[in-house]
Amino acid sequence: MAQEIEIIGIADLFEPPSPARDHADTRIMAAASGIGFMAVRDFPGDHWLTPDRRAQLLRIFALSEAEKQKLLRWNFDPTRKNVYRGWFPLQPTAVSYKEGIDIGPDIIGPDIMGPDIADAGGVSTSDDPLREPTPLPAEDALPGWRAAAADYYRSMESVGNALMRSIARGLGLPETIFDACFDDGISTLRLIRYPLRDANAGVDTSGPEFSVIHKGETRTIIGREHADSGFVTLLAQDGVEGLQAKNLAGEWIDVPPANGTLAVNFGQLLERWTGGRVRATRHRVIAPKTVRLSIPFFYEPRVDAEIAPLPLKGAEPFEPFLYGDYLWEAATNFVEMSGIKHLRQPRRAKAS
Ligand SMILES: O=C(O)CCC(=O)C(=O)O
Ligand SMILES: [Fe+2]
């Protein structure tokens, strides 16, 4: 049983069928159904995986506090209309000690989510918060940032799409089986900064939920243990350690950052969809010695995608559900989304 995180070259996933592509599919499915983590490299858009290129996106953390506050969402500033996309500030008493922004598909074109969302000027005109536009920094505050974020978003969509088809093939299903669900998907590009905890901030972090022993050293937790909720997550770490994954033996192993690779893990949606064939591996972040920056991309279906059991032998059946309903329930349990669950009702009543 593989206990190490494999590095897999995925160039062949972007080419016509070949034995090399079959081999990559096999390795990906082994990682997905084994440890539930892998690292991938060699794909169109991999030029983004250098410190200089990532810095173009991470410039957002250099904005002034006043500029960041303009991007806040409703649960942190009740004068804002956006509830799902936008800035989440540091919450010093929470186990997860991070700030950042969640960016939706409107970054790649205001029309991407239909006319109800176009030109909303930061005000949600959609009746679904999962489709609201992202409040973005002004162009003159960060020249070129929007174009860089859009290009990055497009690159990650294309990697997510290639992995989605590879997983379909790896399950022995038609490679297009998931395609319709990902048309107009609502993937999230998240930029995160974890500063060093200020020992004088008056927050008691001595409790067991805040710290662990790692290689004989006490390390504070800055990203609470969780499994991601979506389909697949593509994570660019910015050269700083701290990410850990729980392996099949229940031990925490380091997921080291490496330039030119994305760490990939699989989400709970995919675990459920595949009746447990793919594993949504739990992970966490322990405090490194310096500030940590990271860029997860959550590859996700469309809001109204119907998630129904796949024709897989022996897989546990389940009641079909709408992705948006599932996502809202899952996402609003995270601390950066606290206090918003009541703002969206399920679009489909649950069968009783
Ligand atoms: O900081 C990291 O690298 C992990 C982030 C993460 O797990 C998440 O945002 O879901
Ligand atoms: Fe995560």
TrEMBL record:
<keyword id="KW-0408">Iron</keyword>
<comment type="similarity">
    <text>Belongs to the iron/ascorbate-dependent oxidoreductase family.</text>
</comment>
<keyword id="KW-0479">Metal-binding</keyword>
<protein>
    <recommendedName>
        <fullName>2-oxoglutarate-dependent ethylene/succinate-forming enzyme</fullName>
        <ecNumber>1.13.12.19</ecNumber>
        <ecNumber>1.14.20.7</ecNumber>
    </recommendedName>
</protein>
<dbReference type="Pfam" id="PF03171">
    <property type="entry name" value="2OG-FeII_Oxy"/>
</dbReference>
<dbReference type="InterPro" id="IPR050231">
    <property type="entry name" value="Iron_ascorbate_oxido_reductase"/>
</dbReference>
<dbReference type="InterPro" id="IPR005123">
    <property type="entry name" value="Oxoglu/Fe-dep_dioxygenase_dom"/>
</dbReference>
<keyword id="KW-0560">Oxidoreductase</keyword>
<comment type="pathway">
    <text>Alkene biosynthesis; ethylene biosynthesis via 2-oxoglutarate.</text>
</comment>
<feature type="domain" description="Fe2OG dioxygenase">
    <location>
        <begin position="185"/>
        <end position="301"/>
    </location>
</feature>
<keyword id="KW-0266">Ethylene biosynthesis</keyword>
<dbReference type="InterPro" id="IPR044861">
    <property type="entry name" value="IPNS-like_FE2OG_OXY"/>
</dbReference>
<dbReference type="InterPro" id="IPR027443">
    <property type="entry name" value="IPNS-like_sf"/>
</dbReference>
